[in-house]
Amino acid sequence: MNKINKIGIYVTIICLLLSFSVNAWAIKCPTCEATNKKSHLYCKKCGSELDPAETPRFQGPKKTIGVLSFENKTALGGALGSDFSDQLTDALMKSGQFTVVARQDLEAVITEQDLAATDRFAASQVAQKGKLVPAQLIVKGAITEFEAQTRGGGTDVRFGNFGAGDFGISGETVQAHVGIIVYIIDSATGQILDSERVEGKAKAGGMGFDWAYRNRISLGTAGFERTPLGKATQQTIDKAVKYIAAKLASVAWEGRVVKIEGSTVFLNVGSRGNVQTGDVFTVYGESEVLTDPVTGMPLGAEKSKVAKVMVNEVQENFSKAMITESCGTVNRGDLIMLQ
Question: Which string of b and e fits 128-138 if b means at least 16 CB within 10 Å?
Answer without folding.
Answer: eeeebbbbbbb
